[in-house]
Amino acid sequence: MTAGSSSSSKPVKLYGWAVSPFVARALLSLEEAGVDYEHVPMNPDAGDHRRPEHLAMNPFGQVPVLEDGDLTLFESRAIARHVLRKHKPELLGVGELERSAAVDVWLEVEAHQFHPPTLAIVRECIAAPLRGRARDQVVVDENVGKLRAVLEVYEARLGSHRYLAGDNVSIADLNHFTLMHYFMSTEYGPALVGPLPRVKAWWEELAARPAARKVAAFMPLDFGADKKEK
């Protein structure tokens, strides 16, 4: 799995299972930046993430892990920021104080407002049945309400800006893609997004990006987020 080129003398490697929305977030940053990289697949059922060689890279036993030359990173958001800061800094607003501040704000919104309820819905609606557990509808209903409120804020924001951090796409938008990809396959995705025309258009534009389409091919819509991923 390669795209573009990298200036590192050592190969860039990303470890993890690509169906994970967190591994896929790191993959998306590499694809958007046109980095030449190797995806090193892992098997969670075989406990690859608990092996000593992986724990030496991430002591929490999670995926993804990025090796970029002599630098080893974990945590998908940190990986995405590093990749784009190095290869495509305009997606972080580097060099523009107000834009970079807006990017930072909406990165925090994604992490603290959007992510928790969306992940809870995806886990209950997709992951739970795959693991032989009935969904907890109380959890779903509670988090659908929370996410609806978040997306209504997005709708208002997108009324004055084409993207969350301004009039150009940024990491603040891209970091939503992989988890939202799974969310939109549940019955709650169209139900929440459909009545919000600006959010709907924003999502469709994100999903149509070449890098997003490439990464989505590794994310079948019958897979849920794994608790060992972050």
UniProtKB/TrEMBL annotation:
Gene3D superfamilies: 1.20.1050.10, Glutaredoxin. It holds the Pfam family GST_C. It catalyses: RX + glutathione = an S-substituted glutathione + a halide anion + H(+). GO terms for biological process: glutathione metabolic process; response to herbicide. Residues 96-223 form the GST C-terminal domain. GO terms for molecular function: glutathione binding; glutathione transferase activity. This is glutathione transferase. It comes from Eragrostis curvula (weeping love grass).
